[in-house]
Amino acid sequence: MKTKEIKVGNVLIGGDNPVSIQTMWDRPITVVDNKLIDKLNDIQAAGCDIIRFAVPKIEDAKIIGDIASKISMPVVADIHFDYKIALKCMDYPISKIRINPGNIGTKWKVEEVLKKAVDKNIPLRIGINGGSLPSDLRENDNLSKALITAAEREMEFLDKHNFDNFLVSLKASNIDDAYRANKAFSKKYNNPIHLGITEAGSLIPAVVKSSIYLYKLLSEGIGDTLRISISDDPLKEIYAANEILSALKLNKRERVELISCPKCGRASFDTHEFNNLIQKKLSTVNKSITVAIMGCTVNGPQEAKHADLGITGSGNSILIFKHGEIIRKVTKDEALEAFTQEIDNFEK
């Protein structure tokens, strides 16, 4: 079912719009300084469309509002328990409010949030998590059904108040439960869906779980925006999301496809080190090119001759090649800058 379109700042979600990428800031903020803004701009440059911040105290609303006024990426305020925080956040240029109406309190408090959201034309995300279901649904053996039931209760309340500017997330830590819930929901409702596996863990388990889960849903046309939840730097969430969307041919951006061999006893070029050095650069390149980082000068250029650009080396002699043909020889100290230049200048 085609979902309806909502607008989150300058990002359109749902309808025929491409799947957008989100992340969440990972620590408390007390000062909005240039270092913070630079980090947020790096996250956006890597391919993030929307960023979310926890707002645990009402004083934090001003801080998040200050951030929203200094970056072009839409900012989402994540609210639990206190409806006054949601109201305060909407006094600032915040693009969306994420709430779980079930833990905001009595219905009149939710009504106050809805009234101000209508007045400010700010969408909401109704966030339903398997770990924070209403008490009467927590012992339900069918978690996917419980997630939908919890969402439907909140949607019924919103519908009674003629509020339809919202999207829904149904998250669980188990792939099958989350998959069944979102698939069943998508068959019944046309609200945009925010996808994600909650509490997915550290880098490797999180990427594995999220890849399987997102492949199943996105390949069926289900899902409008997503977050890869990783217990690590938010930038890694963006890297992973971009790779998944690119693999599924759903990435709206032109991206670099990276080929890189593992190290072995024959390796004469440290692919691990160079990957770490070049990763940030590659994440910001909006070109549909293939880049190879190879560990062996003997086989590297030929094994990766299908790549648009590649690099390998031995000791202090580094080779840069294009479609298998060596085009440049530089020293190890010159390698990063030289390879970056070749990427910037490359045209098909």
UniProtKB/TrEMBL annotation:
<protein>
    <recommendedName>
        <fullName>4-hydroxy-3-methylbut-2-en-1-yl diphosphate synthase (flavodoxin)</fullName>
        <ecNumber>1.17.7.3</ecNumber>
    </recommendedName>
</protein>
<dbReference type="InterPro" id="IPR011005">
    <property type="entry name" value="Dihydropteroate_synth-like_sf"/>
</dbReference>
<dbReference type="GO" id="GO:0019288">
    <property type="term" value="P:isopentenyl diphosphate biosynthetic process, methylerythritol 4-phosphate pathway"/>
</dbReference>
<dbReference type="InterPro" id="IPR016425">
    <property type="entry name" value="IspG_bac"/>
</dbReference>
<keyword id="KW-0411">Iron-sulfur</keyword>
<dbReference type="InterPro" id="IPR058579">
    <property type="entry name" value="IspG_C"/>
</dbReference>
<dbReference type="Pfam" id="PF04551">
    <property type="entry name" value="GcpE"/>
</dbReference>
<feature type="domain" description="IspG TIM-barrel">
    <location>
        <begin position="3"/>
        <end position="241"/>
    </location>
</feature>
<feature type="binding site">
    <location>
        <position position="261"/>
    </location>
    <ligand>
        <name>[4Fe-4S] cluster</name>
    </ligand>
</feature>
<keyword id="KW-0479">Metal-binding</keyword>
<dbReference type="GO" id="GO:0051539">
    <property type="term" value="F:4 iron, 4 sulfur cluster binding"/>
</dbReference>
<dbReference type="InterPro" id="IPR045854">
    <property type="entry name" value="NO2/SO3_Rdtase_4Fe4S_sf"/>
</dbReference>
<dbReference type="GO" id="GO:0046429">
    <property type="term" value="F:4-hydroxy-3-methylbut-2-en-1-yl diphosphate synthase activity (ferredoxin)"/>
</dbReference>
<feature type="domain" description="IspG C-terminal">
    <location>
        <begin position="257"/>
        <end position="344"/>
    </location>
</feature>
<dbReference type="GO" id="GO:0141197">
    <property type="term" value="F:4-hydroxy-3-methylbut-2-enyl-diphosphate synthase activity (flavodoxin)"/>
</dbReference>
<dbReference type="GO" id="GO:0016114">
    <property type="term" value="P:terpenoid biosynthetic process"/>
</dbReference>
<comment type="pathway">
    <text>Isoprenoid biosynthesis; isopentenyl diphosphate biosynthesis via DXP pathway; isopentenyl diphosphate from 1-deoxy-D-xylulose 5-phosphate: step 5/6.</text>
</comment>
<dbReference type="InterPro" id="IPR004588">
    <property type="entry name" value="IspG_bac-typ"/>
</dbReference>
<keyword id="KW-0560">Oxidoreductase</keyword>
<keyword id="KW-0408">Iron</keyword>
<feature type="binding site">
    <location>
        <position position="296"/>
    </location>
    <ligand>
        <name>[4Fe-4S] cluster</name>
    </ligand>
</feature>
<feature type="binding site">
    <location>
        <position position="264"/>
    </location>
    <ligand>
        <name>[4Fe-4S] cluster</name>
    </ligand>
</feature>
<dbReference type="InterPro" id="IPR058578">
    <property type="entry name" value="IspG_TIM"/>
</dbReference>
<dbReference type="GO" id="GO:0005506">
    <property type="term" value="F:iron ion binding"/>
</dbReference>
<comment type="similarity">
    <text>Belongs to the IspG family.</text>
</comment>
<feature type="binding site">
    <location>
        <position position="303"/>
    </location>
    <ligand>
        <name>[4Fe-4S] cluster</name>
    </ligand>
</feature>
<dbReference type="Pfam" id="PF26540">
    <property type="entry name" value="GcpE_C"/>
</dbReference>
<keyword id="KW-0414">Isoprene biosynthesis</keyword>
<comment type="function">
    <text>Converts 2C-methyl-D-erythritol 2,4-cyclodiphosphate (ME-2,4cPP) into 1-hydroxy-2-methyl-2-(E)-butenyl 4-diphosphate.</text>
</comment>
<keyword id="KW-0004">4Fe-4S</keyword>
